[in-house]
Specification:
It is a single chain. Helices cover 40% and strands 20% of the residues. It has a single domain (2-80), classed as Glutaredoxin (3-Layer(aba) Sandwich), CATH 3.40.30. The chain is of the alpha+beta class. A 4-stranded mixed sheet has the order 2-1-3-4, with helices on one face.
Length: 81
Amino acid sequence: MNIYVCVGSSCHLRGSYDIINLMKEYIEKYKLDDKVTLSAAFCLGRCTDGVSIKVDDEIISGVSKDNFSEIFDKYVLSKLQ
């Protein structure tokens, strides 16, 4: 599974680096290092809806520290099980 976190200007200002750190933490917590590749993306085209992430071919917008756990469960864990 490939996961991209937008680090473009708009997403950066909305906390994309917090999301990257949470993503790293959850990948380690669930021991997914061999199943998930995490990368930064310059822009995913959803600048007004950031922070945006892309999980394989699906773009998810509006990711925040508050909803991260729910999004990770729905878009990452459920697809890997």
